[in-house]
Amino acid sequence: MPTNSSIFAETKIPHQKSHGGVTFPAVLSPAAAGGASSLTAGVKEQRPWLDSLLHKHGAILFRGFDSLATASDFNDVVEAFGYEELPYVGGAAPRTNVVGRVFTANESPPDQKIPFHHEMAQVQKYPTKLFFFCEVEPESGGETPIVPSHIIYERMKEKHSDFVHKLEKHGVIYTRVLGEDDDPSSPIGRGWKSTFLTADKAVAQERAAKLNMKVEWGDDGAVKTIMGPMAAIKEDETRRHRKIWFNSMVAAYTGWEDKRNDPKKAVTFGDGSLLPDDVIYDCLRILEEESVAIPWQKGDVLLIDNMAVLHARKPFTPPRRILASLCK
Questions:
Q1: pTM above 0.85, yes or no
Q2: CATH number at residue 134
Q3: Strand-by-strand arrangement of the 309-313 sheet
Q4: What is the number of domains present in the chain?
């Protein structure tokens, strides 16, 4: 379906890359002069075309829609796409509900980077679509780098074939210790009450079981959660028919660190053996090399196909306020 020239114009900006002739990410701006076009109305009118564009490119940045200024405006855009909401149960990031389906993005301290991951890849119920919205652009830094997952699989398979073979055979196990309440000093500081959306241990245990998550309660009110073995490499469930690097391995190994957690014990092979340090850090290098990091501008909306693209966060100088919404 061709784009409606009265609403969207595909544009080129610095930092975009080309993978196999496909621009990454796609960037759409208002076709009308002055940027006054309603993104919500455009989404409703062009939803099938936008879905096909997302399938092709893996991510779409909407930029320059000056009618988009508040969290409520962003919520209207998310609703216009018609994707079903995914409750944030089992995720690690500290977040706060803002309005409707809109939450803050990971609230960890601004001096900390958040390593590459697929959203909630460490649990069985993960979103397939992610929205991010820039309500307040950073003074400096704070980009959300993104990278196509199939490219990472191909490069890792080529360079570390034995490691990838073991991953495909055994999968990975994620282990994390959660406090009772949220810890805003930690990038994985979501407490078990927030994680399971309850203050009742019995209900938390029941919800963990629905995620196939093992839990071990400590005397100090903390809980150890164990997920896996889980696949670290998947077949893309859409019609792309390619393998993807679908995991939070590098994020866990290099970033799941706080007073309760040792990152090198946070993720292991599914048979319990430790991951090789040198390969994990080489994977991180490849992720950074292949990624795109577009500086945020106020009013930007970034739509990501979680089955196709990993994302991260760079440290920043406040203020910065990025909002998010997760969809099935």
A1: yes
A2: 3.60.130.10
A3: 114-117, 309-313, 146-148
A4: 2
Is residue 3 included in any domain, yes or no?
no
Quick one: 214 and 180 in the same domain?
yes
- Alpha-carbon distance values, 317 to 111, 135, 137, 221, 300 (Å): 8, 15, 10, 34, 18
Nearest residue to 292 (alpha-carbon basis) of 310, 278, 280, 275: 310
Establish if 181 belongs to a structural domain.
yes
111 with 143, same domain: the answer is yes
Q: Under a CB-based contact definition with an 8 Å cutoff, are residues 328 and 85 in contact?
A: yes
Summarised one tens digit per residue, pLDDT across range 123-145 is 888 999 999 999 999 999 999 99
| Residues 41, 136 within the same domain | yes
The arithmetic mean of pLDDT across residues 95-120, rounded, is 92
What is the rounded (10 degree) CA torsion for 100, 47, 237, 290?
Answer: -90
Range of the domain at 128: 8-148+293-327
Cβ atoms within 10 Å of 204's Cβ, excluding its own: 21
Q: Would you say residue 85 has pLDDT above 90?
A: yes
d(Cα 109, Cα 125) in Å, to the nearest integer?
27
Closest CA to 86 of 50, 129, 134, 144: 129
Output Rg (C-alpha) for the chain, integer angstroms: 19
